[in-house]
Amino acid sequence: MSTLSAVALLSLLLACMVGSVTFSLPELIAALGELVHGTTSTMAASLIELRLDRALSAFVTGATLSLAGVMMQALLRNPLADPYVLGVSSGASVGALAAMLLFTATWIIDAAAFGGALVISLMLYMLARRDLRGSANSDSNAPLLLLTGVILASGCIALVTLMLSIAPDTRLRGMVFWLMGDLSGTQFRWLPWIVLGGALLFSTRAARTINVIALHAEAAMTLGINVAKFRIGLFLCAALLTASAVSNAGSIGFIGLIVPHACRFVLGPDHRLLLPAATLVGGAFLVLADTLARSIVAPQQLPVGVITAMIGVPIFLVQLHQLRRH
Description:
Layout: H1 2-17, H2 25-36, H3 43-76, H4 88-102, H5 106-133, H6 138-166, H7 169-180, H8 190-205, H9 207-215, H10 227-249, H11 255-267, H12 271-295, H13 304-325
Helix pairs in contact: 1-3, 1-12, 2-3, 3-8, 3-9, 3-10, 3-11, 3-12, 4-5, 4-6, 4-7, 4-10, 5-6, 5-10, 8-10, 11-12, 11-13, 12-13
């Protein structure tokens, strides 16, 4: 974990150095020293402060999506599950785009996205609570839960399409960028970090139970595990993580799918290692992807969701090929 922590720290430093204006390491250290002392008297310090805020937002979003992906794959016992598979992100999209049509304040858009995700999570729980409480026959219940999420997501996508078709041209570009995943307007906030910290604490303390649920669900009850209660907690935690990530940066795909697979391929299926490793790798991956998105055609900035998709597709195909060979 110390190596992954160092990689995560290096990704943050690289994000502060690289951009339309590149800084050397001594300039970065001097600017960070100004920030530590609470002063931003130079242009370099002000610019690095902006980059650091964006890099921290990218890190917490990537870490949140990756952790949610691990939880979803354990909950559904499906290696193809990701944070968006149950329609939570689609609910956030409906809330965010509705707020963009009616309001312009950033905090209203974020609150609407978070609220939309929570509403869909509540609907999904009410419609599939029997499937979530299933224990002895969890393999047959998981597809029913997945199908319910897909249907809710389809309804949300229809609403998103409707809002895009009636949106004025002045707001259409911002709405499309949000749907593709964009970190250009994000600001440092404590709430996503609190959500990530609480979820990581819950999951790491329950890592042994997740191992049993994911690998030997049929025997979990004989080991004294309340499978129904634990699956509900796992679902609610993953839904809260997804809501936090999507409201912070829009719909950024593939992180919650490829990062858990890559970490599992290297470290194995033990969630005691997989959970913190996926959190660190997911955060560092999105920081590097966002750095590439804002510097590859600088000063123009690309939606980071495009970069993650372009990187994620070939990586996932390679992973599938390796799994097939094994």
